[in-house]
Structure formats: C-alpha cells, structure tokens
Amino acid sequence: MRYQITGKQIDIGAALQTHVETELNVVLEKYSGRPTDATIVFSKSGHEFVCEATVHLSTGLTATAKGRAPEIYAAFDACSEKMDKQLRRYKRRLKDHHKERTSPVELIGASSYILAGQEGDEATEPDTLQPIIVAEMETKIPSLSVGEAVMQMELAGAPVLVFRNEKKDGVNVVYRRDDGNIGWIDP
C-alpha cells in the first residue's frame, strides 16, 4: 500500500509518519484486505491540528475521515477512529457487494471544470451566455453498480456521484435529496 503523508505549512516528522502507517494498517487490515493507497494531510486551524485521511480501496470505494484535536497525534487518532467506524459500518455491505469482484474497478478519464460564479446582482443580465472557466482538471469516473455507487457516495460524504453503470454501460448519477433519500438518474 502506498502512503502519502503531508503537512500544510507544518513539518511532519518520521515518528509521526511511522505512527500513521502503523495505526492505519491496523484499521485497514481489520475491515478491508485490498487498500491501494492512502493520502493523509495534516494542517493547523487556529489552536487545533486537523488530520484529513482519504483511503482508496481496490473495490473502487473511497473512504474519507477528518479529525481535530489540540495535539497532532490526537488529531490523527480521532481521524483514525472515524475511519474505523466508517469501515466497520459498511463491512457487511462491502463483503456482500464485492464477493464476485476479482479485479479492481475500471476508471475512465473525464474533464472537470470550475466555472466562475455570478458577481454582483443576480437580477442583472450577463453580457454573454458563455461561462468563464476558472480551472480545468482531470477526474476519474468509476464503473460501478448502483448499490456500490450509493455506498461510495455515503463513504465519501459527497452530495452527488457520477458513475458508469456496469449493467447498462451508460453514465448515471446518484445524489442525496433534500428529504434525506437517495435519487438516481439513469438517462
């Protein structure tokens, strides 16, 4: 498994890196036998340290967790506990959905754009209908079943997930509705 442990404007020592790798290995081996890589980012927010962890599993799922504490080790421990709880909660569903899957989830490339928002009064008519592109990035769209897509969306804490439906081979969207239910768009 590959680890990327970084700090935003703070120095991460070798002892902390070893602690993170050891503790995260314990959590991941308990619930998931096939993690591919993990990204852990430490930062400071006011008087607290913040630890954000993202773990990509070979099943295509991405688990994210965030922890805060006055000390950096405690921030990681809080983040690790959330990751443990999240993976424990989905353990049965992960096993049930991925028994037959022997190869990693297929990912296809796509472009992702960030558009500039409206400045000033919303009632004024814009000069042009062409939006201003602020940033262009490369993103990956996973090939999943609908159940796996819903699980991925919940694990990531995202409001929406675009995926390629394995059964129909088309692009689909799952999203969290305002009433708390999950919506699914299948064009």
TrEMBL record:
Location of the protein in the cell: Cytoplasm
InterPro entries assigned to the protein according to its UniProt record, in alphabetical order: HPF/YfiA_ribosome-assoc, HPF_long/plastid, RHF-like, RHF/RaiA, Ribosom_S30AE_C, Ribosom_S30AE_C_sf
SUPFAM superfamilies membership: Ribosome binding protein Y (YfiA homologue) (SSF69754)
NCBIfam families on file: yfiA (TIGR00741)
Ranges where the Sigma 54 modulation/S30EA ribosomal protein C-terminal domain occurs: 130-183
Family statement: Belongs to the HPF/YfiA ribosome-associated protein family. Long HPF subfamily.
Entry protein name: Ribosome hibernation promoting factor
Pfam families named in the record: Ribosom_S30AE_C (PF16321), Ribosomal_S30AE (PF02482)
Organism: Roseivivax lentus
Biological function: Required for dimerization of active 70S ribosomes into 100S ribosomes in stationary phase; 100S ribosomes are translationally inactive and sometimes present during exponential growth.
HAMAP family per the UniProt record, alphabetical: HPF
GO cellular component, one term: cytosolic small ribosomal subunit
